[in-house]
Structure prediction request, 882 residues.
Amino acid sequence: MTRKLSHPTATRSGSGWARAFRSLGRTGLASLAVVAGALLLGTPAAHADVTAKDVQLMLKVVGFLTPPVSGTVAVAIVFDAANGDSKKEAETLKGFLDAAQGGPIVPVARLYSQSDLGSLDARVVIVTVGLPPAELDAVAATAQARKMLTMSTDPTCAKGGKCVLSVRTSPKVEILFNSAVAQGAGIEFQPTFRMMMTGV
Amino acid sequence: MSRKLSLCALGALAVGLSTQSAQAEAVNYGALEEAFGEPVTTSATGAPQKVSDVPMAMTIITADQIHHAAAVDIPGILGEYTDLDVWEWSNGVSDVGARGYDQAYSSRLLVLINGRQVYLDYRGFTDWAALPVQLAEIRQIEVVKGPNSALFGFNAAGGVINIVTYNPLYDKVDEVELRGGTQSTVAGSAVATGQIEKTLGVRLSAGYGRENAFDTSSSSSPFNINGSSANTYTTPPDTITNLNVSMDSLLQINDDTQAGLEYTHTTNHNQLIFGDDYRGYKTQTWTDSLKGSISANTGLGLIDAVVYHNWDHAAWTFYTYPRYDVVDGLTDAKVQDLFNVGSSHSFRVAAEYRESNINSIDVSGSQISYAVYSPSAMWNWQVTPQLDLTNAVRLDHLELSRTGSWPSATTALAAPTLTNADFNDRSFTKLSANSGAVYKLTDVDTLRASFGRGMQIPSLYEYALLQSATVAWKAGNPDLNPSVVTNYELGYTRDLPDYHTKVTTSLFYQTNDDLVSYPNFAASGATLKYVNVGNSDAWGWELGVDGKNGNWRWGGNYRLEYISDHLTVNSSGLAYPILYEGGAPHNLLTGRVGYTLDRWDFDLFGRYSTSYQMPVAREVGGLLYPVYTVPSYATLDARVAFNVTDKAWIAVSATNLQAEKTIYTSGPAVERQAFVTVGMKF
Prediction:
């Protein structure tokens, strides 16, 4: 035998759901209005140009490499000399990297065009958006052979198996990780960091 | 397990694992949070995750939010930033519940500090005033609503709160706070960190507080302090004192291995705590804990081994009865391995052993204990970059035991009919599970669906209490079944980057089977036993808003909930103090807003609750508990601070600004409080 003790506010008649929605009252309706308003406002941001935050994230990611990396780190920025956007992004990246000198990772950035790939020498390679497929393949192969960490702000770089990582910070941080490329290049990250990246 | 054995186990782990070669790291919350741009937690699945990726309802209260809180204790802070149920019984003493189901000695919420249980198994509650942690050393408070037993085991039935402190090796915290206020409050705390770069970090902290108990009877509160009516209880203490100290250290043995050691102590005198019978007990408690840990990255994955032991000594005084003392211990040893398979699969496998014991629980001076053996596993599968599935299971095998003699018959009472064999033959195996799916619809929209099945083990008191109540035995029951909580949930999160705001909403349905309760003390005749008393279910809707932009910070929560009890008792009145239906407000609303103007901080917190019911204990006058209706209330807390420098501040804060007295429980009215705090970082 069960006896239910009545709730002081549950004295009106009707089904439980009806009572619930009546009880929702002004407070609940106001809350629903907040939700509805929130859903109507704001739209996802489109992919934007590289930002200082993107570069800061790239440097933070380097800090999770294992064995640990610190101090001066050579960073190669690969661009397509025939593509104005690619060249512009490369120069922007170099500007941000040259300015980022206060942290535990001190980047030394250098631009590489297609004709320079033979002399590619760096711990980290940043691949700009818009590289022709053949050039992208060449960069990936060179970086893998020389055990370099490849990164891009273009998500297709990691998804397409050309980069170890694709990173972005807007609208929220996303780090795509291609374990096959990393394994091929002998790149390892600290395990807790590794578990938080999105595998592709 | 004895204290000596615990120390041996710590040493054995240290020797056994320190020779392993790999790259190891404790979770560096600060670095990971900085990289991913949001708080990081391990309290959902055991693996590190962004809070936006966890497959269950979780709130993280950050250090910055704690700093800006008007409340000066953890239950108060939870009340300001979450929709948890916070029942403030007396000065410094609260019970906290998730999604209703709060009760005196709230037993459904597992509370941990850095994964170490501070929830007290033996009696099934958390003594919030005895937590050995200073607010200044807390990195974040992680709040999980709903069962998470597949990770944390028994007692993570209704929810989990994991208080994560700063890492002594990675984070340097040096801070002093002094506080004075109403109720003759005098308090101080200090935190200091010493580090040998990248090798050793040690953080020491200490806190002391003294304040007067709430002593104002309310005309509408059923609690009658120093009165002579049937509702008279223990005379509250005049002065409450708390002292706690802690040490946390982390040693980088080599690039591959870390070892940690923690010690804590608390002394609390003269608190008024309300037991699971809703009576007010004057208590004194002393607690100590020692914890050792090793972390190593091996070819098999990231292996963590943790051993800790908690000692607790509590003394109760109630009404006119003589003081009685309880000494209990909890030993926990756990090894887990986290590893990845390919780019899409993460696994956690773990084995845990825990032993909880208590003596002086009954008239014969026996010892009662249980041992729990628990294998568990978690599998996280990133099906696509947008879809993430997590499944976790855990088996808990419990063996109960009792040693010692039994009391003889008295002129009023026959000898108890239980024997030690009734306990030593008692064992069971239970399965807990958590499953969740997280689907990122767009860059800013995330859907969650989750299922959880958690276990709440009866406390040692509920299993084995044996006391003479003059005309009856008050007795535990070794045949009690654990309560089972099953939770089904749908959630949705929308980021509004243009408005620097995140909106989260959840719809949940929860069933609770084999609830446990105990008949009113005033009954006479046969042995009074803890029993399973039936089931209860609940559904609810939650909405949370959290935002920060420039000098502004804001947020709030709303919860709508309906609970239905289906009990086998209380058919003709409240003979058992169990009242979940009606025991939680149907509507709970919180809101907060803060602004920083130059050197000034202004923060305001509001909370509104519709009415709810609670049992009222009384010493004489009948077998049934009267039911008291806590009226609807709205409260206001505020803090104003002047930052003298970047590292020094003076703050004036107040709680329950809206009235001199506010009633949250069937206990004493809660008084308005005001504090002046001076703080400095070094």
In short: Residues 52-199 of chain A form a domain with the Rossmann fold fold (CATH 3.40.50.2300). The helical segments of chain A are 16-40, 52-62, 84-99, 133-145, 155-159, 179-185, 191-196. The radius of gyration of chain A is 25 Å. DSSP finds seven helices and seven strands in chain A.
